[in-house]
Design brief:
single chain, Growth Hormone, Chain: A, 20 helices, MFS_trans_sf, TM_effector, transmembrane
């Protein structure tokens, strides 16, 4: 199954290389079996996430919940990991990464299996959904930090940017029809199927990672005691807050990510409810919508990213992407029909993809190898609160006013911060030129 999915994805890779976004030389990474298994395993997780993104909101609505309940689910999904993010980097740096990933996938699969059993028995409640989301998000944080640390070990620092871009394209290729299929399958066979597919995606990722040689993902360091983990957990925070220029760069990038995640929490938490309440979308409609806006936005957002970085630099490119993302979110307030709404959401996805990929890559290029996991934990903690706080805030605005007002407020905040940062950067460059 995994090999077939990879072969299908590889068939369309030449199309993307024609854009010169991925160089022909970079494709040698695909000849590495371990790298293929790693990114295909990640792609299988995305397939499950696509089903979950449709299943969970509709489950909450099915159980009598509303916009604020969905927003709370988003908050729980992102607030829980903040608790573990303090120690997840130390765990990732202290132990072998392969067993950590396998444990996270297996435990998340077990948690989802319990929720699926409750659903099929007719015993599922919204509280159970919140509990399952909290558990899987905690495990997902540890898994994400570990995978993020492992990919640079797997491909090397020089190949990191191309590896992350190839990973994004393969994920989109494998899951290009997943949102559409998710909507149709859930509509025909019920919400329970979405839970089952999510469970199977964790199983597929478990199998893929289990086939990778352990040393390719990173061996354990010397510290392994609980006291060592507690002491070393602060190393990443100390480095980011230090006078080290690279640490300062990571801190600035993290603060930009805070703004991006905060304003993006409005459509993340409210869009499904907005489409259902305003346009009577069904699961099939949501599937088609997510599939089309997702793949078009992904390709558009990544197609010229490499040339933009080389011409503008990471910081300016991220600031411009943040501005575009904020403008598109604000314009959701003025979208009178689905055609304009579709266009706006595609641009929003493109801008968000460009910003997130740029920030993630830029941060990892600045971090020393020996601190990778712990600094990523610090970044996760710095940025982690922005999404749950934003989801709760915009959920409250939506309940007090309406969805469009929440989108407008998020957009105005993002536009204001983006323009402030861009103008500050222009002034600094002007002073440097004059001096």
């Amino acid at each position: 199954m995994l090999n077939s999915a990879f072969k299908i994805a590889v068939l369309i890779m030449p199309f993307f290389t024609k854009s010169k976004f991925i160089s022909s030389e970079s494709l040698h990474l695909l000849s590495d079996k371990s790298f293929r298994l790693f990114i295909v395993g990640t792609a299988m997780s995305v397939v499950g996430n696509q089903f979950s993104m449709i299943t969970i909101p509709f489950l909450i609505l099915h159980l009598g919940g509303g916009a604020q309940d969905i927003a709370l689910a988003v908050s729980i999904a992102t607030l829980g990991p903040v608790i573990l993010s303090i120690f997840s980097g130390s765990i990732s740096d202290a132990f072998r990464r392969k067993p950590i990933i396998l444990f996270c996938e297996a435990a998340a699969m077990l948690s989802l299996s319990v929720m699926a059993a409750l659903y099929f028995l007719g015993k599922l409640q919204i509280l159970h959904i919140y509990l399952c989301i909290a558990i899987t998000s905690l495990l997902g944080t540890l898994s994400y930090i570990t995978k993020s640390s492992a990919i640079r070990t797997l491909v090397g620092k020089d190949n990191l940017q191309d590896a992350k871009i190839i990973q994004q394209y393969l994920i989109s290729s494998i899951g290009i029809l997943t949102p559409v299929l998710a909507g149709i399958c859930i509509a025909v066979w019920g919400l329970g199927l979405g839970l089952v597919i999510d469970i199977l995606s964790f199983l597929a990722t478990f199998i893929a990672v289990s086939m990778i040689r352990g040393d390719r993902l990173g061996l354990s360091a010397k510290q392994k005691t609980i006291n060592d983990l507690i002491r070393s957990s602060l190393d990443g925070f100390i480095w980011v807050a230090s006078s080290d220029p690279k640490g300062n760069a990571v801190l600035k990038l993290s603060l930009l990510w805070v703004v991006q995640k905060f304003i993006a929490s409005a459509p993340s938490a409210l869009l499904v409810y907005f489409l259902v309440s305003q346009y009577q979308f069904t699961t099939e409609s949501i599937g088609f919508w997510n599939g089309l806006t997702g793949i078009m936005g992904l390709v558009l957002g990544l197609s010229f990213l490499k040339s933009l970085i080389s011409k503008l630099g990471y910081f300016l490119q991220i600031q411009l992407g943040l501005l575009l993302s904020a403008i598109t979110i604000a314009s959701l307030y003025f979208s009178p029909n689905l055609y304009l709404l579709f266009f706006v959401m595609t641009l929003k996805t493109a801008a968000t993809t460009a910003v997130n990929t740029s920030i993630s890559t830029a941060i990892q290029l600045e971090i020393p190898d020996e601190l990778m996991g712990r600094v990523l934990s610090a970044v996760s903690l710095i940025t982690g609160l922005s999404l749950p706080v934003g989801a709760a805030f915009f959920g409250y605005v939506s309940e007090s006013y309406d969805n469009q007002t929440a989108f407008l407020v998020a957009g105005i905040l993002g536009i204001s911060v983006s323009l402030l940062l861009i103008s500050k950067g222009i002034k600094q460059r002007t002073v440097q030129v004059q001096s």
